[in-house]
Amino acid sequence: MSATEMRTIPDEYPSRTGAGVKWIPRKDPVVYPNDDQGPLTGEQLDFYRENGYLFLESLFPEEDISRFRSELRSIWEHSRNARAPEIIREPESEEIRSVFAVHRDNDVFRGLSRHPLLVQAVRQILGSDVYIHQSRINFKPGFTGKEFYWHSDFETWHVEDGMPRMRALSCSLALEDNYPFNGPLMVIPGSHRHYVSCPGTTPEGNYKSSLRRQIYGVPDHESLTRLVQEGGIDMPAGKAGSLILFDCNIMHGSNSNITPLPRSNVFLVYNSTENRLAAPFSGQAPRPEYIAARS
Ligand code: 6CS
Ligand code: FE
Q1: Could you tell me the domains of the chain?
Q2: Which atom of ligand 1 is nearest to the CA of 210?
Q3: Which of 20, 112, 191, 207 is most buried, taking the most CB atoms under 10 A from its CB?
Q4: Which residues of 8-18 are buried (b: 16+ CB within 10 A; e: fewer)?
């Protein structure tokens, strides 16, 4: 679809409009109605609806994980001296931070993105067919791996990619053991029920710096304090092979990693086919396909 053919639709979740910070109650279901049988139990779906995430400890066996990890190493080696827009470096060094579109460019991770267990679990939550909106590996090597500041993914996908509604989720698969001390994902349970609009406006081409360090689309301190007062912070850290499913609007982030123990994860973002991207609500050009799939 060309830029001129992009749908323009009303903005249900305005953010970065230059107006003050506003909390908007979520207008969309968390678990969508669905008759599909799937791997998730009613209890697990209730936990996800209530908290905005679900932790599945040691979901993938060691032989799968060692295959993924050797792929991870070859992507790292290959990306080190390569120049491609999909390779994102750390803000203050040439160290690799993320590699995008691994479901498109790597056979093993393409296979993972189509794994029936993942797809069926995601369909149970989103209540429709799904497709990959974004995929990436986040490398957080020992000693030098840097943090990801607090954010809601949906805020960015809405403003910068034109994702209309909250009907998407991330699967984060741990490829190394996650401990409380090597920079695992932190989530604020219950925060997915509030949309916290962010201050400022989006600079043109923001993604060229935001994937290294996010400055726009970051909530204010007062909102974060209130969210944590209400929900606390959960840190679902476990063995390699553990999976976290989390709602597109849950507030999350992670600390840097000064331990010698690397923490690398593969992220697969699924969106509902009923929630295809429209024109970005920032009014700017859409981000490239390797960050936000439109085709
Ligand atoms: O801009 C994005 O789409 C990415 N940025 C962040 C901080 N999280 C989600 C997503 O991968
Ligand atoms: Fe995120």
Answers
A1: 25-33+42-272 (2.60.120.620)
A2: 1
A3: 191
A4: eeeeebebbbe
